[in-house]
Amino acid sequence: MVGKVDVILGAQWGDEGKGKVVDVVAPEYAVIARFQGGPNAGHTLIFDGKKHVLHTIPSGVFRNNVWNLVGNGVVIDPVTFMQEVQHLEEVGVDVRSRLLISRRAHLILPTHRALDAASEADKGAGKIGSTLKGIGPTYMDKTGRNGLRVGDLEQPDFHERYRALVAKHERLFAIHDHQPEWRSREQEWLKAVEAMRGFNLVDSEHWLHEQLNAGRSVMAEGAQGTLLDIDFGTYPFVTSSNTISAGACIGLGVGPSMIGKVIGIFKAYCTRVGSGPFPTELHDDTGEAIRKAGNEFGSTTGRPRRCGWLDLPALRYAVMINGVTELAMMKADVLSGMDRVRVCTGYRSGGKIRESFPFELANALEPVYADLKGWPTLDAAQPLPPECEAYIAFIEQAVGVPVRIVSVGPDRTATLVRDAAPVTR
Ligand code: GDP
Ligand code: IMO
Ligand code: MG
Questions:
Q1: What is the pLDDT, as a whole number, of residue 419?
Q2: Is 177 marked active-site?
Q3: 15 is an active site residue
Q4: Nearest CA residue ID for atom 2, ligand 1
Q5: Is the pTM of this model over 0.70?
Q6: Residue whose C-alpha is closest to residue 342's, from 365, 367, 362, 317
Q7: What's the Cα-to-Cα distance from 292 to each of 173, 269, 284, 341, rounded to whole Å?
Q8: Fewest 10 Å CB contacts: which of 36, 39, 215, 262?
Q9: Is any ligand 1 atom within 6 A of the Cβ of residue 20?
Q10: Closest by alpha carbon to 173, among 236, 116, 134?
Q11: What residue owns the CA closest to ligand 1's atom 26?
């Protein structure tokens, strides 16, 4: 039997808890593969009382007998990558023996980061709120057919190609009002590039199909979330890659017929970091209480995350676009102790209520809420309290797919698997 590629992806604006779920399910898979994004991602794993944040390396890296693949759709900053490797080696993980990197993955240059910063500074108040990791400019060079790829490291003329791209970027700086300094980063970058040559650089599409043909199963680990997708997110306040399930096909080189389960990860509420519309955002004490209880500060940038109630039209949209087959609800513990929890069931605009996700999501859209009962403290060793079950049933009914995993704390072990019944809408 040929293996399948299951997909785990964010169903909101990122930071849903993808890293935690991937770590939990990783032992069931032979390969964990990242398919898009880059060091803008921050995936947190907590076990044995320790916290680890991964940016480029897949979240299966702590599990024995699991291959971790950085796929062709990913963009890699050699400096961040080597820092991650160093952290993992310090904590005793043998990264090199279980990590593969696609030759087709693109490289983030110091000048890409500087161009990202220049573009954001020019935009002023209209900025995207980018993580400033150089993601946008690197994907621009990829689609503009100027990029440098991991496989280019093995070519004798790598340094000339690097210089040529930098020269192009230097001309580009002229169109910006701001010219961030980048030269001080160059030596470190070139050193990290040398170090990357010592890793397992592979033709990942061939390698992955060999695994699948041998009957092994693959988990594709998404970064960011559906509402940050370049095509279907809240454009222009999005990232520069396809974060949705179709992105796994492109970013790994597998056909749609190879995709098995599509697991959508969402928080019991919503968060967003960076700019852009967020109709259910809470600017009051409740929003502050959620931020505090959920420790809602960015894993990559440390920025406070904006918090608000769960948005069902947005979640339904994510289920539709990704072909989600099951959901995982994260951070249910964060809402514990509230008398009442709210979920947005539609948006009111111009006297009408719409339940579908619009072309232009705007803060002017007034959310229509359903109020549900809150629940007491949650414990992974106990069944979920009826109020929490009722909240989940309400969501399942609204979006049409079952919630199979419920996460009740940041630790690997604080995870419940529900025997969810099929949902009929
Ligand atoms: P990712 O980018 O989707 O992997 O998510 P992040 O790691 O950026 O953000 C999720 C945050 O929530 C991390 O700090 C996790 O440790 C934490 N977390 C994950 N699941 C739970 C949960 O069920 N409860 C609580 N309280 N925290 C969680
Ligand atoms: P993970 O994988 C949350 C957001 C940024 C900004 C926009 C564009 O941890 O869920 P970029 O640096 O990609 O040009 O930024 O996207 N963003 C994320 N928000 N989680 C992430 O990744 C994100 N990666 C990018 O805040 O609004
Ligand atoms: Mg994150």
A1: 81
A2: no
A3: yes
A4: 15
A5: yes
A6: 367
A7: 40, 13, 13, 16
A8: 215
A9: yes
A10: 116
A11: 409
